[in-house]
Amino acid sequence: MSTASTNSPTAVPFKLDAQFAREFPELSSPGQGEDAPAPSLLLLNEELAQELGLDPEWLKSDDGINFLLGRDTEPLSQAVSQAYAGHQFGQFVPQLGDGRALLLGEVQDKNGMWRDIHLKGSGRTKFSRGGDGRAALGPVLREYLVSEAMFALGVPTTRALAVLTTGRKIQRETAVPGAVLVRVAASHIRVGSFQYSNLTGGIELSKRLADFSIKRNYPELASSLAEPTPQLYVDFFRAVMKRQARTVAQWTRLGFVHGVLNTDNTLISGETIDYGPCAFMETYSEDTFFSSIDTQGRYSFGNQPSIIGWNLARLVETLLPLLAETPDEAMTQAQILMNEFGGLYREALQAELALALGVDASEKKLFEDFQNLLALHSPDLTTLMRALTEGTTKPSGFEDWVARWQALNPNLKQMAQVNPIFIPRNHLVEDALSSALNGDLHNYLRLLKAVTHPFDREAGTAYLSLPSSPGFEDNYRTFCGT
Q1: Is residue 402 assigned to a domain?
Q2: Which of 63, 98, 211, 264 is catalytic?
């Protein structure tokens, strides 16, 4: 990470590809980031930059900053905003799209994987729907912090490459500093992308999008693309289900509440995306939600697995003609697939709990009783799991269960590698953002260091592992940041 900006030679050390833009002109609109009156590179994830084969020193230069804002055309082949539809809180919107975002293009990382480089807050696009296309600094800093914390915790996620301030005030409830987030993902193709493709181009376009997604995100299936059969698309959908089941199981293990699980925020790659109203809960409850616009708790903590299943049902609807030779057979196949999701999620959750508790995944009764105790006693999940890991205390109400668990000789070393000491606790995030918006990054950078090294204690950081004061979460609400 860096907060510096320097000048360097103007030679561009790389060039992005434009695979999505080239293959899907029907699903994209060419664009460019808007001019910024006084741009400045606030944060740079140098480790991620190097992983992508990008020179951090060049990114800090004036040319590099122009590139990160989507202004410099030389390393770009064609920046585009992507089109997609979406069910938002259950209501279908036929056209959403990147209203304040740009896909700059794709780069092959050092492991040979293609990764999107994508901007958020880069200005108006064809899909802005009356918005200004800009982003406020506070939500951008939140996404950088939480997405990098999730990566450090081993959760599939988009990554944060950089935060730039634009030197422009933007109007929200008050005038606030404008900023741009540069994020990286294995793909930005969403369930909503398939909904839009099916609506506008029919099954032919959805098949092309599925084939592209297979080549990009599920290469183990790509050998069948030469002579595709219905089984290929059955296998593709099942693979997407497995990834989504594992991701939401990891959220469950960690007490993470996404907050806005619309179909346009469900990626085919299985990565977590859109950290607007997200939060980690401290008082365990299935009913926990934080988003200010989720007034009915549709996306509450306990609903997340079923909502992911609902979103996947919307995906399989777009693939029906690919799944079998006849409509009736396709509907039957789709139902068979959807009936698998509950089992896939339970299997994924058992695997996550086995890791967290250091025991074999076959201990289903132990896991069931543990979850019942969580619901009954509402502990701070992170503190509880670390206490079990380190044997510092026996949680009240868990005494009999702990004795059963200890009799299994749990693998404490394994537990220490998956149960974090530090997470982005809500009161710490709010304090860090408040200070950062007043020009002081000290608290933010200290919290960022802790949550990106979540299993490592360091002198003077114990306060960053403590939950908020009683009652803090009762009325705590998060915002989408649009």
Answers
A1: no
A2: 264
Range(s) of the domain holding residue 39: 19-185
Torsion angle of the four alpha carbons 279, 354, 394, 399, in this order, in degrees rounded to the nearest 10: 120
Q: How many distinct structural domains can be found in the chain?
A: 1
412: in domain: no
Determine the angle formed by the axes of helices 327-357 and 364-377, rounding to 10 degrees.
80
Within 13 Å, how many C-alpha atoms sit on residue 473's CB side? 19
The pLDDT tens digits of the residues spanning 364-415 come to 999 999 999 999 999 999 999 999 999 988 889 999 999 999 999 999 999 9
75 in a domain, yes or no?
yes
Beta strands in 89-189 (DSSP E): 91-93, 101-108, 114-120, 135-136, 159-171, 175-185
CB atoms within 10 A of CB 359: 19
- Please confirm, yes or no, whether 440 is among the known catalytic residues: no
Q: What is the pLDDT of residues 298-340, one digit of tens each?
A: 999 999 999 999 999 999 999 999 999 999 999 999 999 999 9
Q: Is residue 163 part of a domain?
A: yes
